[in-house]
Design brief:
6-stranded antiparallel β-sheet; alpha+beta; NGN-like_dom; 4-stranded antiparallel β-sheet; KOW; KOW domain-containing protein; single chain; 5 helices; NGN_dom_sf; SH3 type barrels; transcription
Length: about 180
């Protein structure tokens, strides 16, 4: 998707926790229903049987998939319940069973930060991300220009931290390219 198109798309997303390791099969199931999914991936070096090292894309986490909400919640709920895969959509709270919607802008920025071509990044669990302290910033310069998040420090380096339900990502930035919000 082109950045201009993605920024003008205001469709929210859902985070779905999977209770299966068949993440690609779940994505194919939703694709058959005409729904868009996103799985954060990164390059991993693996050695084949001939002892040659190959770079392959692998999911960052095996139990999480994001689903674009381009239909009403009841229709998506129907697809989730009809699936043979065991899954659970993140809800607003224990009491409120409505699906939690990730805003389109937040998801656009998260997907941009998950680009496997970007280096110097770390993936965190939701709990680890909550332990990080940092100021809300807007990146003003460089390849991440326009992205927002929290500026956090780890191992004497600065990172832009972006959280979504189920996980978080940190990408190395220089402190001077960020401006407080």
């Amino acid at each position: 998707m082109k950045p201009e198109t993605a920024m003008s798309d205001h469709t929210p997303w859902y985070a779905i926790k999977l209770f299966t390791v068949r993440q690609k099969a779940v994505a194919a199931y939703f694709d058959e229903k005409g729904l868009e999914t996103f799985i954060p991936e990164e390059y991993v070096d693996i050695e084949d049987e001939n002892h040659k090292v190959k770079r392959v894309l692998r999911p960052v986490v095996r139990n999480l998939i994001f689903l674009k909400k381009d239909r009403d919640e009841q229709e998506i709920r129907k697809y989730v319940l009809a699936s043979t895969f065991k899954m659970s959509v993140v809800t607003k709270s224990r009491e409120n069973k409505s699906y939690y919607e990730i805003p389109a802008v937040q998801m656009f920025e998260f997907r941009a930060m998950c680009n496997p071509e970007l280096t110097m990044r770390k993936y965190l669990s939701e709990e680890q991300a909550h332990l990080k302290k940092g100021d809300r910033v807007l990146v003003k310069h460089g390849p991440l220009k326009g992205l927002t998040g929290r500026l956090v420090r780890s191992n004497k380096k600065y990172y832009l931290l972006k959280e979504v339900p189920g996980m978080a990502i940190m990408i190395k930035v220089t402190r001077w390219c960020c401006e407080g919000l």
